[in-house]
From TrEMBL:
CDD domains: HTH_HspR. Residues 76-107 form a coiled coil. The gene is hspR. Residues 213-234 are annotated as: Disordered. This is Heat shock protein transcriptional repressor HspR, fused homodimer type. NCBIfam families: heat_HspR_dupli (NF047377), HeatShock_HspR (NF047375). Residues 10-79, 122-191 form the HTH merR-type domain. PANTHER family: HTH-TYPE TRANSCRIPTIONAL REGULATOR YFMP, REDOX-CYCLING DRUG-SENSING TRANSCRIPTIONAL ACTIVATOR SOXR. It comes from the Bacteria.
Length: 234
């Protein structure tokens, strides 16, 4: 699997530092901050994967090109690690369900499509602004920057969901408490939206596989007996 090769720890710290044009001590600092998670050999030597190299290059881009402070970088990388972990969970769950399908396991209960109530657009802009202690014009600015994505009523009125409120509170925390600049906030919120989308996609794909498994097992149970086989009636 391609993703497995990207996560395979292969580079010692000196090679990894050379690949990303950083000092090895910088890589150790980033590890202590939890920004990067190198593997370990049996002898406890740090080993970096291609994914780690990608993360280190992203850290360099955020700090050197966008001027994001360390608190902002920590937020970005925490979300990136969540995305990586979610992808791993997704692949493991798909593999588990496929194993059940191949082994003709007992059908799983059906699960219809569900919408998270937090995504339901309910708050007009004045109420949303009051809930997060911001001016409505600030919310419009954040929408233009694509930091927030409110829904629309049939009359094109902005409507904000509970998840939008959570995102707005997170933006306020990043800017006011952590001092993250707007470029850093944009990166963080882009990753948050990507993470939300990945979770929804994972849940939807798992449900589809569960439904497919249920349908196949139902068909197997209702197949007529082969000629010459008892049909189960006395």
């Amino acid at each position: 699997m391609a993703s497995d090769s990207k996560h395979r720890p292969v580079y010692v710290i000196s090679v990894a530092a050379e690949l990303v044009d950083m000092h090895p001590q910088t890589l150790r600092l980033y590890e202590r901050k939890g920004l990067i998670r190198p593997g370990r050999s049996s002898g406890k030597t740090r080993l970096y994967s291609e994914r780690d190299i990608d993360h280190l290059r992203e850290i360099r881009r955020l700090t050197q090109e966008l001027g994001v402070n360390l608190a902002g970088v920590e937020e970005v990388m925490r979300l990136q690690h969540e995305l990586d972990d979610l992808q791993g969970e997704f692949e493991a769950e798909i593999e588990r369900l496929e194993d059940e399908l191949r082994g003709q396991a007992q059908a799983l209960p059906e699960s219809g499509a569900r919408t998270d109530p937090r995504d339901r657009p309910v708050y007009v802009i004045s109420i949303a602004a009051e809930l997060v202690d911001m001016h409505p014009q600030t919310l419009r600015l954040y929408e233009r920057k694509q930091l927030i994505r409110p829904g629309r009523s049939s009359g094109k009125t902005r409507l904000y969901s509970e998840r939008d409120i959570e995102h707005l509170r997170e933006i306020r925390r990043l800017t006011q408490e952590l001092g993250v600049n707007l470029a850093g906030v944009e990166e963080i919120m882009r990753l948050r939206h990507e993470l939300d989308g990945a979770r929804s996609s994972l849940e939807g794909n798992v449900r589809r596989i569960q439904d497919d498994l249920s349908e196949r097992m139902t068909r197997l149970r209702t197949l007529p007996p082969a000629p010459g086989e008892p049909d189960g009636d006395p």
